[in-house]
Specification:
By secondary structure, the chain is an alpha+beta fold. It is 31% helix and 31% strand.
């Protein structure tokens, strides 16, 4: 109990130090803590994430996350590596340097994480969704096909959704999603190696509250939909094996 109280105090102090910082990532992390504490909505955080990606200087990002070391880790791991170091100025004079230096580790207690993902050619992240999430992918290297499906209703065993994104990302391009916007996502590597930069926060109150108790990674059978459309279709939940068996047929 004492530890949880201390963490909450540190997170609130950290939010105050981050939200008005000139560093773009620090400002985004401050907004993420605002969503964690219920001060801002999922929709506001999603918009702030899109703005962060749209204004991001990739050379500055690569420097501040020590990209060569992070890339070596994700290539060795073969799928994902956490980003735990973020070099930024603007530390408030009242904040201890060790807290500022370890802010990404501290943010884990607020279910906020940054990581790099890698996909080899033909490798996929099968179609799935999460409840209570705001997330985004920006491609740093290679090429990756991505599809998003926007959910208009959650059911106990299915969702009502339509395909809204069907693109091949080039370096610097990105997508964002949340419970109420493009939540189902499906990725496919189309270069020898593709590396994506991901922001993710989970456990937020949902903008679509039906069946909010659904938890974890929920796989979706997207096979009834072949192209973007305005007409939503019922898509059932699937097992991981079923989702992985669906072929990502790229349209010309």
């Amino acid at each position: 109990m004492v530890k949880k109280t201390l963490v909450a105090i540190l997170l609130r102090a950290l939010r105050h130090g981050l939200k008005n910082n000139h560093d773009p990532l620090d400002a985004l992390l401050g907004h993420a803590l605002g969503a964690y504490f219920g001060v801002i909505s999922q929709a506001r955080l999603r918009d702030e994430l899109a703005r962060y990606y749209s204004e991001l200087s990739i050379p500055d990002l690569l420097e501040c996350i020590d990209y060569p070391a992070a890339k070596a880790r994700v290539v060795t791991d073969g799928y994902k590596t956490d980003l735990v170091d973020h070099k930024s100025a603007g530390k408030p004079i009242w904040m201890p340097q060790p807290v500022w230096d370890k802010k990404l580790a501290l943010l884990r207690h607020a279910r906020v994480r940054l990581d790099l993902l890698t996909l080899s050619e033909g490798a996929s992240i099968p179609p799935h969704l999460h409840r209570g999430v705001v997330s985004g992918f920006m491609l740093l290297e290679g090429r990756a096909a991505i599809r998003h499906y926007d959910i208009s209703r959650y059911n106990r065993d299915s969702v009502l959704a339509r395909m809204t994104v069907d693109e091949v990302l080039e370096p610097g391009q990105y997508t964002v999603n949340s419970d109420a916007k493009d939540n189902v996502h499906w990725l496919l590597g189309v270069a020898d190696r593709s590396i994506l930069y991901r922001f993710n926060i989970t456990g937020l109150p949902s903008e679509l509250p039906e069946y909010g108790d659904l938890a974890g990674r929920l796989y979706i059978d997207t096979s009834p939909i072949s192209a973007p459309s305005e007409q939503p279709v019922k898509l059932r939940f699937a097992t991981e094996e079923e989702a992985r068996a669906i072929t990502f047929e790229r349209r010309s």
